Amino acid sequence: MERAQLIASIESGRQLGVRKYMDIGGTHISYTYAIQKLNGRYIVFVDEYDVDRYYENELEDTEKVTVYDTLDEFFDNFITKYDVSPEDFCKSKGSKYFSAEFYRHLT
Known about the structure:
The protein has 107 residues and is of the alpha+beta class. The chain has helices at residues 3-11, 71-81; strands spanning 16-24, 27-38, 41-50, 63-68. It has one domain.
């Protein structure tokens, strides 16, 4: 998705995200990154875990949420930190990436 299209979709309240699976030195890592605008702020969800050890550590919290006031903050901080680009984001196929309503109290 192009940056302008990503911005328009986020501003309309759609939830968009990225799911990636990577092999890093024999370790299989699952990444989920997502964003949704709620109450004028941008909720960004991150879930990263070692696929091979997930059930050993299932009580370990792998999810993080950050709230940004502007999309510029999101692009400046998130996109470069997690090495994803606007082209990587898409609507989920099936269930949402995360429940934004769960984090309503942060907005």
